[in-house]
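User: New here, any thoughts?
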Amino acid sequence: MLQQTQVATVIDYYHRFLISYPDIRSLAAAEEQDVLRLWSGLGYYRRARQLHAAAKQIIEGSSGLTCFPSTLSEIEKLPGIGRYTAGAIASFAFNQPAPIVEANTQRLFSRLLRLEVDPRSRDGQRQLWTFAQLLVNQKSATPSRINQAVMELGSQICTPRNPDCPHCPLNQLCPTFADGLQLTIPKVAPKKVITELTHVALLVRHRGLLLMLKNTADQWWTGLWDLPRVDVTHRATFRKKTVTAGSLLPVNLDWLATQFNEQYGMDCIVDQHHRTFKHPVTRYRITLHTFTATMGSRPKRHPNLAWHRLGAALELPLTAPAKKILSSL
């Protein structure tokens, strides 16, 4: 859960997850939809699927395992576990001399080495992992304590901006501090180019039911439920972004109904603008306009669309935008 997600965000999810799945066997026996539901809102849902797959692999013994492995090489064979996560588990859980290079230690080690190459480059990574291995091989402290210490030092003292060098216990050993290069080492990665997209989602009602869409393997949020949506990025009306709270979006509602009919076979009547907000997905930022709608005739069958009562819909593994919209209802 902590991969690319802050501790404060993870804590509540972690406790809820352990209540539902207190051990590997219960997680392995779970349905993927239930695992995704508990993960809903954390993002990077591939992590949840790989965690589930790893539990199954351990219990089913496909690698000859009967319990969680304790060696670095065996841990790395599990789905979703890379070099950093394997090192963290091996050192923290089993006190193995396994190195760790993640965001905080990468920054700390780069400054301690006065690393002038990009730390993400092959040469940079080679130097950082070699240094990390040398640290945990020291006999003066246990590997778990060394790794915890350097992660904490990078997080609390050796920060990206305004590092607290005067209070750093390693400042006399740091050539970057000695040369005053804290703000140029490590080399800062260029900012990702964000692509703006515009989507429209429909709140479609029919006899007390709400129409929901289950995302397929070729879509974002695979396996999660969302509201039916269409991409209208290239529609001039939507590019204006003139919607304000409580206002109606100046768009032809019949045209909008046609877009959903073409994509989903939905014969619906779009009623009015409901709300608009932005949400990120990887390198995209989506402006999502939601409209209320009713069915114009008997709903047609669609392999990924299903009707749910609102209470039941809220229990589904939802995308973050769908969760936000349904909760507001």
In short: Residues 195-328 form a domain with the Nucleoside Triphosphate Pyrophosphohydrolase fold (CATH 3.90.79.10). Residues 46-60 form the longest helix (15 residues).
